[in-house]
Amino acid sequence: MITGLIMLKIKPVEAQSLSLTISPPLVEIMIKPGKTVTQAYKIRNDGEPAIVKISLVEYKAGDLQASPDYIPENWIQIINNDLSFNTPFLLNSNQEKQVILKINPPVNTPEEEYYRILMFSTSPNPASQFSQSSISQNLGSVILVSVTRTGEKLKAAQLTKFAIPALMDSFDPLIVDFDLQNTGKIYIRPIGEIKLDGQASFKILPKIVLPNQIKRLVTDNSKTDGQELHSLYLPGFYLGKHQVNIAFTLDEGKIKIEQSKTFYALPWKIFVVLIILLFAAYQYWKIKKREHA
Q1: 0.70 surpassed by pTM
Q2: Which residues cross the membrane (predicted)?
Q3: Which of 92, 95, 116, 162 lies 20 to 30 Å from 272 when distance is taken between CA atoms?
């Protein structure tokens, strides 16, 4: 799951006096080849003076390690006059600096997703008798760039799991699981709801699903049983026939996925207990009858 701000490789040696913040932590951009967008970032230093270097890192399958084979795209550039990639600059205490990023994919750019991290690598200003810190810090902001002429044709998804009991006990909680696989070429967010009997409605939380990723759909009524997270966990009393329906679109687009399943609920556990008690009572009656014969 992409959460935005990335913090890693903090190496304290003396006192940890570096304190940097970046905003925004996550940027999503859908752009047509040949078009241009700019994005402003703010980096603030609330600690000691630090040397900062900005770089572009490939984000691949959750791995933030810089790949030696990765060559940054020349259509992603810093356009500040006094800043550029991989060129250190001084950020003083309580100073805030704006970084302007320009994204301009050429007309012949392949239509696909580009996942990148705008990485800010810091180190203390060269040590002096007044310095209290000798630490380094890496902070990253996630950039999700979708290069597409239409957007919609690159989106596709399927439900790989719709798990619901065909028959459940009336007193058991209703547990339903949905897994969504992104079979398209760009990231998606499911936007929709799950309904029980066409009345009770549960909003699907719009979490990002990357291409080829399978993710459990969650709602405000999701709950873990100690082993796994369930999409719906609804305690209550159920009797008879019920139906669960799920319907959502991929982002705010026109592609819609909808499925429904039926389940039945009976207090069968009580029936089993009653049958056992009746059988035990019958056996007891037979034994007593023999004793009086």
Answers
A1: no
A2: 266-285
A3: 162
